[in-house]
Design brief:
- With 218 residues, this protein is mainly alpha-helical.
- The protein contains nine helices and four strands; from the N terminus they run H-H-H-H-H-E-E-H-H-E-H-E-H.
- A two-stranded antiparallel ribbon has the order 1-2. Strands 3-4 form a two-stranded parallel ribbon.
- A hairpin with a 2-residue loop joins strand 1 and strand 2.
- It starts with a helix and ends in a 14-residue tail after the last helix.
């Protein structure tokens, strides 16, 4: 998390992109650090898999040369959003789905190609946000349609990104969905903490439902 450049190497490898020596995320790492990351990825020791959207933002920020190391939480993602807002024209960036998951191999390939062609980083950042929003909307709409529901809630730390939130909300509303977003409770870990506190208080008052699923109050 503290070194988005390392995350970038992992994500690029996951996407099957091997020719990376000319990318900013590689030049940001020294030879010894690069060798360490390569060893970790090859052996699986000292690293863990994650589905965090935050790590995807970290990787993209480093691939585009925005931020390779951070000094506070979500710094790379914040700076990527700020940069995207300055774009003159969002670059066309591919996004696709693989079953019920977002498939980012094509997205990373588009971004890497854009970097090599000299496309402005701001336009690539904006294109990435649009690609993420589009894929999220397609997946959410597919699941909602299958469940025959017309209301979709957007939660998770990634939706602290106001640019992404606005895109996803507008696209879903254009498809006829009611969209719920956070107003008084934050969408990130702060919201989880509040929920945990509320559940703990409910147990303390003896009104919580048995987590074993019996339905009896405890």
């Amino acid at each position: 998390m503290r070194t988005p450049a390392r995350v970038a190497l992992a994500v690029l490898r996951e996407a099957g992109i091997e020719e990376i020596e000319d990318l900013p995320c590689v030049s940001a790492l020294g030879a010894a650090e690069r060798a360490l990351v390569d060893s970790q990825l090859a052996s699986g020791v000292g690293c863990v898999r994650t589905t965090s959207a935050g790590r995807l933002f970290d990787a993209v920020a480093s691939v585009l040369g925005v931020r390779h190391r951070i000094s506070y939480e979500a710094q790379a993602a914040i700076e990527l959003e700020v940069l995207a807002r300055t774009a003159t024209d969002a670059a066309p960036v591919h996004s696709s789905l693989r079953g019920d998951e977002l498939d980012w191999a094509g997205t990373l390939a588009c971004l890497v190609a854009g970097v090599r062609l000299g496309v402005p980083a701001a336009d690539l950042a904006a294109g990435f946000h649009r690609a993420l929003a589009s894929a999220t909307v397609r997946l959410a709409a597919r699941i909602a349609d299958a469940a025959e529901v017309r209301t979709i809630g957007l939660t998770g730390g990634v939706f602290q990104n106001r640019l992404l939130l606005g895109m996803v909300r507008t696209m879903l509303q254009d498809r006829g969905f009611e969209v719920l977003t956070h107003r008084r409770v934050p969408p990130n870990d702060g919201g989880l903490s509040l929920g945990q506190a509320a559940l703990g208080a409910a147990f303390a008052r003896g009104r919580a439902v048995d987590p074993a699923g019996t339905g009896r109050a405890r």
